[in-house]
Amino acid sequence: MLKILVAENHHVIRHGIRELLGGRSDWQIVAEARTGRQALELARQTHPDVAVLGLSLPELAGVETIRQIRAEEPETEFCVFSMHEDEAFVADAIAAGARAYVLKSEPGTRLVDAVDALSRREPFFSPRVAGLVLSALVQAHASGGRAYAGPLTSREYEVAQLLVEGLGSRVIARRLGITPKTVDTHRAAIMRKLGVSSMADLVLYAIRHRLVEP
Q1: Is the pTM above the cut of 0.70?
Q2: Structural domains in the chain, sorted by start
Q3: pLDDT score of 137 more than 90
Q4: Shortest CA distance to 68 belongs to which of 100, 106, 101, 36?
């Protein structure tokens, strides 16, 4: 039985993915997540064979979610299901560990084909994405295979995303299981490393690095 985790912010799209993938008797959707952080926790609990996820996840961006799940669950294969048809998005996804990428604007059967390929440990890129893959691989190689080439640590990326989403130090502390003082320490380090002095500058950085959508 192939165990599948689905992570997607929009309920209607999650439902559609469930309908597409639920028709196979040898496939089981073991968990559904709305946020990247939920996906990470559920992956720890269910150890999925395949994770299907969008890139614009709240709390923990899709690419960073892939990177963190992959670090803890190295046997999990990742399929990005995204509206973003852009070389940079494909590059980031591949660098993080995704081996399949399907556009939401394409026929749903492509997603089924992608999961089927991953179940055999084979990569899959839909026809409209395939032309971008070579450039994406070159870009991923140039960045050393990291999801982000910037100077922040994984924890700092998490804090930065939550700050940009408008959460205060106490709320972030509860989300991440740390103290508000630690959040403030991370905030100071983020500002220093990025050379920014305001939340407006931090938002611009977050958009450029796809921590949030513009």
Answers
A1: no
A2: 2-142 (3.40.50.2300), 154-208 (1.10.10.10)
A3: no
A4: 36
